[in-house]
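Backbone-to-sequence.
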């Protein structure tokens, strides 16, 4: 799974928005937290065609989570998370893919980033923001469809 910000991969985001409007059945509301105080609203779309900067074709799924939870002052705050994946998304796996996959990966990468920043400082860090680097983690496999991994 890769983090998919609204400004990343415009064609993938546009297709996701269009398909998710046509597929209202691909939605799930989930409550979590010690007292079910966290509300997560998921929507997803599968089989989105994407051609990367090296002209490789991918069939991807996108899943989005709008998470609403109380902040330190008790005010409700909503945060949007979105990921691209080569896994098929369904009611059975939307929460696991998002919470145990996408968000956990982000947490691990962020913790590694913070350790590197603390030990090596900003000047030695490698920075990039190209579209090519945003998609490099997606593996292109011959004769494989999403969800067969």
């Amino acid at each position: 799974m890769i983090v998919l910000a609204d400004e990343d991969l415009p064609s993938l985001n546009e297709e996701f928005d269009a398909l998710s409007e046509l597929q209202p059945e691909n939605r799930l509301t989930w409550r979590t937290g010690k007292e079910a105080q966290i509300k997560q609203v998921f929507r997803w779309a599968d089989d989105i065609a994407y051609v990367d900067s090296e002209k490789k074709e991918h069939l991807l799924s996108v899943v989005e989570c709008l998470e609403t939870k109380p902040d330190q002052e008790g005010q409700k705050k909503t945060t949007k998370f979105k990921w691209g994946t080569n896994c098929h998304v369904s009611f059975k796996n939307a929460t696991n893919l998002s919470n145990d996959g996408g968000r956990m990966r982000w947490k691990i990468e962020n913790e590694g980033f913070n350790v590197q920043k603390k030990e090596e400082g900003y000047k030695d860090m490698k920075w990039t923001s190209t579209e090519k680097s945003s998609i490099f983690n997606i593996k292109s496999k011959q004769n494989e469809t999403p969800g067969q991994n």
